[in-house]
Amino acid sequence: MKTITINGRDILRPNDFTPSREDVYAAEYTTCTGKLIADRIGWKYADMTLSWDTLPQAMLDVLTGMNGEATLAFEDNDGLHTERIIRGRFANIPTRFTGIDGNAAWQNISVEVRFIDVHY
Question: Concatenated DSSP letters for the chain?
Answer without folding.
Answer: --EEEETTEEEEPPTT----EEEEEEEEEE-TTS-EEEEEEEEEEPPEEEEEEEEEHHHHHHHHT--SEEEEEEEETTEEEEEEEEEEEESS--EEEE-TTS-EEEEEEEEEEEE---B-
